[in-house]
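User: I would dearly like some help making sense of a protein record. This is the protein in question:
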Amino acid sequence: MAISPDKPLDGRVAVVTGASRGIGRAAALALAGAGAHIIAVARTQGALEELDDAIRDTGSGATLVPLNLTDYDAIDRLGQAIHDRWKRLDILVGNAGILGNLMPIGHVTPKVWQQVMDINVTANWRLIRSFDPLLRMSDAGRAIFVTSGASTKCRAYWGPYSVSKAALDALVRTYAAETETTRVRAMLLNPGPLRTAMRHAAMPGEDPESLRTPEDLAPHFIQLASPDWAESGKIYDFPQDRVLTPQAPA
C-alpha cells in the first residue's frame, strides 16, 4: 500500500490515553492529521466529544472511550474490542498521568501515593499487558510512553511523581528488551516544560507564555509512531530534540 507523504499514518489505528486535553489531545490531533484512526481514552465524555469534532475536521475518524485507567478490567475489555474490530493495534500512546501532591515524602498519604502509582505505573503496565498481542499483530507496532525529567532529577517534594516516572522508564525499557526481535518498537518521550495544566499546578508562579506548547511537541508523536521508526528502549528528549540512550550502571 502506497503511503501518502501528507498522510504517513493513513489506515493505522492508534490508542491515545489522556486524550481529552494537553499533550494527549495534541498528540491525538497530530496522529489523526497524519491519517490514523484515533481510539481516544479519557475520563471526561464532554471533552472527548469536543476532540471528536476536531478530529473529524482533520478528515480522520475517532472512537471515543470514556474510561478511568484505574478500571483495569475495562482496559482488558478495550483490548478485546480492538481485536474484534481491527485485529491489531498499530500505535499506543501512554500519556495519561497525574502529579500527586508536592510535599516531603514522609508527609505523603498512602492514598495519594497509591493514586499516583495506579495511574502513572500500573495503568501503563495493564495497557502493555492487554495490548502487547495487538501490537505484535501490526506490521510495525509502536508504543510511546510520556515520561519526565523528574524520573532522574529527584527533586525535593516530588517523590511520588519522580518514583512513578522512574518505574515507568524501567517498565518501558524492559518491554523494549522483550520485543527486540519483533516488529514492535517501544519508546519513552520526555516533553520537558510545556504549557499544560499539570505544569501550572506544579509551578503556579511561572509565566506560561515562556513555555512551548503541546502543539509544538505533537509532530514528534507522528515520527515516533511511523513504521519507519527503528529505535527502541530509548528516550526522545524534546528539550534537546534528540534521542538519548539510558546509561546502564558500570
Notes: The mean pLDDT is 93. The chain has nine helices and eight strands.
